[in-house]
Amino acid sequence: MKKLLSFLTACVALVLLSNFVAAPVGYQVGDKVADFKLKNVDGKLVSLADNKVVKGYIVVFTCNTCPYVQAYESRIIALHQKYAPLGYPVVAINPNDAATVPGDSFAEMQARAAAKKYPFAYLQDETQQVAKTYGATRTPHLYVVSRQGSDFVVSYIGAIDDNSEDAKLVKTKYVEQAMTDILTGKPATTSSTKAIGCTIKWKKA
Asked: By CB neighbour count within 10 A (0-12 exposed, 13-18 middle, 19+ buried), where does 13 fall?
């Protein structure tokens, strides 16, 4: 009996360990990011390299259907309106599997972008490879990437602010604090926070 229990314990531990090892790590602050080409809601392909004059991007992994995203939607638009003129436009990426969540289909993305008058690119990560490469796990999950020569390097990862429900109750605006440092050429004082939101809906194996 003891041998059986030991065997079962070892099996459970092995499964847990394999799940831990398999979890995507993604980018860390200071890492150079790989470029991508993803379809925008206007049907055109978009990459980071397309805009030759930007200083960087605010990359937001988002979607249509998550309540957290909907609560943050106006704040994401506000980030673009504030920082695009300063060289850091928002690029929104939807990694959710539309087969699992039909409300996150490309057609629904187009409808949402039109209804909310998104002033930024809203891209479909159909293969989910970009989200996996970044290490995104939630919607919203935000990455600030800054230009260094011909490369873009991660400057901040995490949440937009400290209140995912009500913008009026926000005490700490993590992204804005980071951008204040980044725009003056300094590393972000707080460069990483915990992203709060819905889990990304991955494709079923």
From this structure: exposed
The domains of the chain are located at 27-199
Q: What is the pLDDT of residue 50?
A: 95
How far is the C-alpha of 94 from the C-alpha of 159, rounded, in Å?
Answer: 16
Query: Which residue, chain included where needed, has tokens 């003056």?
Result: 184
Q: Listing from the earlier edge strand, what are the strands of the sheet with 121-124?
A: 45-46, 38-40, 121-124, 90-94, 56-61, 141-148, 151-158
**Which CATH number applies to 27-199: 1.20.1250.20, 2.60.40.10, 3.40.30.10, 2.40.50.140?**
3.40.30.10
Residue type, 107: A
Decide: pTM greater than 0.70: yes
Tell me the C-alpha distance between 165 and 20, whole Å.
30
